[in-house]
């Protein structure tokens, strides 16, 4: 339109700043088709700094899968191929990756990311088999800048994983998982994660003794989330120990389950 600027005439830096707020589906299937300048901007590594794969539908019948196959003229869709495309466009500047919970991710994908994303700061792991969990310590030790790690359940290699984090990830400050938190787990959290600022153990089996140990031992903790846990009640001593923490969320936690059964011997992991 006469007298009005067009979107494609926007300076590249401004366009990149806008596009990096979009999700991966838009960056792969919508934005590049608008015009040449938008396509060029969508390929900038800053647009691929955060790879949130968890919000995408990778099912064979999903819109993303079918549209991606049509656009790139593929006979079959492979999650690994999509991941490699996204990581390549990040040009070793990727800082955050959130893997799908259940679909598609293999240990080969995780090792690929450990090699190609050296600047990773935040990692959200998928569900892994017990056999694959043994390799987690080898992975985390490669990310020197790792600050935050999230997983669905405490892995069998938990203690070894924290040892690797302690040795190699000097900026590590956030952990989220659930599971049966034993005394040795509590001691490892306290002793091996000295700069821990955020800890989420919601829906875990967390005995009162372990909770008090975390409250007393994690000196830099700013937020502790232990909602809907089994093994403790937020009594006066627990609340008093938590006064030094900026955010202490413990709602829904209780000592026994609904059947009045103390799960002290339960370790689902």
UniProtKB/TrEMBL annotation:
Coiled coil: none annotated. Signal peptide: none annotated. GO terms for molecular function: SCF ubiquitin ligase complex binding. InterPro entries: F-box-like_dom_sf, LRR_dom_sf. This is (wild Malaysian banana) hypothetical protein.
């Amino acid at each position: 339109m006469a007298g009005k600027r067009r979107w494609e005439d926007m300076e590249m830096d401004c366009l990149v700043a806008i596009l990096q707020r979009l999700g991966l589906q838009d960056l792969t299937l919508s934005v590049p088709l608008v015009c040449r300048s938008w396509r060029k901007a969508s390929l900038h590594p800053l647009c691929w700094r955060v790879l949130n794969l968890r919000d995408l539908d990778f099912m064979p019948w999903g819109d993303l899968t079918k549209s991606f196959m049509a656009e790139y003229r593929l006979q079959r869709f492979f999650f690994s191929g999509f991941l490699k495309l996204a990581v390549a466009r990040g040009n070793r500047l990727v800082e955050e990756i959130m893997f799908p919970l259940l679909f598609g991710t293999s240990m080969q994908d995780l090792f690929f990311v450990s090699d190609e994303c050296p600047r990773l700061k935040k990692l959200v792991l998928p569900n892994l088999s017990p056999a694959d969990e043994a390799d987690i310590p080898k992975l985390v030790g490669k990310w020197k800048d790792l600050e935050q790690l999230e997983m669905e359940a405490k892995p069998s290699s938990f203690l070894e994983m924290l040892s690797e984090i302690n040795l190699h990830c000097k900026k590590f400050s956030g952990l989220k998982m659930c599971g049966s938190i034993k005394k040795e787990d509590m001691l490892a959290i306290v002793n091996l994660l000295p700069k821990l600022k955020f800890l989420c153990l919601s829906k875990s089996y967390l005995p009162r003794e372990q909770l008090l140990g975390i409250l007393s031992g994690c000196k830099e903790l700013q937020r502790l989330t232990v909602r809907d846990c089994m093994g403790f009640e937020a009594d006066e001593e627990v609340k008093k120990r938590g006064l030094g923490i900026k955010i202490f969320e413990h709602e829904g936690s209780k000592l026994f389950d609904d059947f009045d059964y103390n799960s002290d011997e339960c370790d689902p992991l």
